[in-house]
């Protein structure tokens, strides 16, 4: 094998093979081509003149990279082989690596690439000596980075902007307000006073929603090797406060409605601080460079949209008892109508986004509500809370405000990346609703089919 210092000296007097210039080719294909340079190489393998390790490439484009090697086997002229891998395949894909001509001591390799979503893709470049029975690695480099730059958004691409213009929304909003007023009629002041003395359920809810659930989302993203955008979408979804449907499910499953409403309000307030903190931590861990925008205005609107009708319902309960009884009769039919309408709107919003959804995110999305329900019930059970409180804590942790997660992603990313990341909250929302409806059906069947105990008075009469 040639002495490496000799090779470096020889390379210094040879024209350096590659100075990266981005030149367009027909049909939108781009090529990183070679030029002349007198800069000496510090490695056997180089891209360009060796002075830069970061290069830009257009989004959604095919092209080639020319890599030079100054390594020459002492036994064979063609005794080396180049292996190139993209460490983020969703940003950049390596199609193939082929050998080109050899000029003097410099051998060229053509690496065919295809860019995807905008982002950063580190390259793993490994030079192998294949003259032996068992090839060995001559040199390995991980310092080259391809930055895929975004192109202008396609005006016709999918977007969630039409959500606020959906006519069904204007039909459902008054029903939502009336339904929340009806829930306000079920609030018990004695239970609210009890929470001030024993806030254990609320504390469990905060721990589960803002510590355990985001960590679980991150774990799932690693288990299923999700792309960064999907991983972040899943983690942000797991970091959101309890959804507004939590107290509906608490009512239908025999939980504590007053506790459910209180936990939803408190977790929404806590989210103004915990969501930015969680987002900062996990964007750093995932090495995502985007700055996430937490929609504080939307959180405030959510708070008001819960607090105002609930307070109105509480006032109606004590000032207009007859109207209160009428509203209580409307809770179940209105709630089921709103669930169906919400599912229909979610399908309209997410049909195009979910058409190419990955199987891994489907499995992860289904697992999120299941874990939240189980961990919430387990924590409450360990504190020996009554069964209705255990159910409520379980539901509040297991049912996330996915619309809030959608708002974060849509405000923080370009349209293409936002729609891709939005697969996570859509899948979690659909899974959560489906799983909770299944639990409600099983609960109703159990109540109707289980044998009812017969009192002693009935026995005597018989």
From TrEMBL:
Residues 1-31 form the signal peptide. One of its GO terms (molecular function) is bile acid:sodium symporter activity. Pfam families: NTCP5_P3_N (PF24690), SBF (PF01758). Residues 44-150 form the NTCP5/P3 N-terminal domain. One of its GO terms (cellular component) is membrane. It is a multi-pass membrane protein. Keywords: Membrane, Signal, Symport, Transmembrane, Transmembrane helix, Transport. The chain crosses the membrane at residues 168-189, 201-218, 230-250, 257-276, 296-316, 328-349, 361-383, 425-446. It is found in: Membrane. PANTHER family: P3 PROTEIN (PTHR10361:SF3), SODIUM-BILE ACID COTRANSPORTER (PTHR10361). Belongs to the bile acid:sodium symporter (BASS) (TC 2.A.28) family. This is NTCP5/P3 N-terminal domain-containing protein. It comes from Chiloscyllium punctatum (Brownbanded bambooshark).
